[in-house]
Amino acid sequence: MEKTVNQKAWFLVLPVLLLVAFSAVIPLMTVVNYSVQDTFGNNQFFWAGLEWFDEMLSSERMWNALSRQLLFSGIILAIEVPLGIFVALNMPKSGFWASVCLVLMSLPLLIPWNVVGTIWQIFGRVDIGLLGRTLAALGIDYNYTQDTFAAWVTIVVMDVWHWTSLVALLAYAGLKSIPDAYYQAAKIDQASRWKVFRYIELPKMMGVLMIAILLRFMDSFMIYTEPFVVTGGGPGNATTLLSIDLVKMALGQFDLGPAAAFSIMYFLVIMLISWVFYTVMTNLDKKGG
After folding, report:
1. Any idea where the domains of the chain sit in the sequence?
2. What sign does the dihedral 233-237-242-243 (CA atoms) show?
3. What is the tens place of the pLDDT at every residue in 171-182?
4. What is the rounded CA–CA span in Å between residue 66 and residue 240?
5. Which homologous superfamily does the CATH classification assign to the domain defined by 59-288?
């Protein structure tokens, strides 16, 4: 017997599609338009072709910003993923304290990005900040506005404090989904704690961990507010990541053509990385199935 398909459900999706078209597709087409044109002002444009793309690809400034961005994202993942797994493994699995831990782990995620930047900007100040004054009292030369290493440490620690909870909560959800029978079998076989983690917990967490890695990489790759509030991209250009450099180019220098080409390449890199992660996650699901 042939099933009848009701297509009326598409009318429920139509408002969402229109909203996405208005808020995403139209601005994207505007950026594409700017990326292939040039202007001398007075809202008069003329065709420039791929000139801005060639300029950006040969720009040492863009490649330096990209290298800083990749370094930042790599450091973030190398710290937050293992730390999040460690926290999830040591959280209570049930009871009152499990609820308390979940609430406490969720608190940093509720703080707006600009507020996080402001908190750490004040926290790290040598004159009034608790961290800055404490380190100065201990004889440690720390000044994130003048020292490159201190600036990098500050924005990395700030991001770890803000977002490790996300990895921990996702890993915790993966651990909670493991049936008790697996642990009982491991106990009967007298498996060590490392073997339980290696052969039971880690494989079962792999799906949610891939989602956590994807989310954290994408967010760290597009980060702007927190490092901009704390360091403004300084000292010099030491913490000028891709997003900060793009805003400086578009709004600070008002180079609309190069900035538009820059943003399109930025967008394509993010799409490529998202596709790679999606492919890896799909292959893992197939193997798991």
Report:
1. 59-288
2. positive
3. 999 999 889 999
4. 9
5. MetI-like (1.10.3720.10)
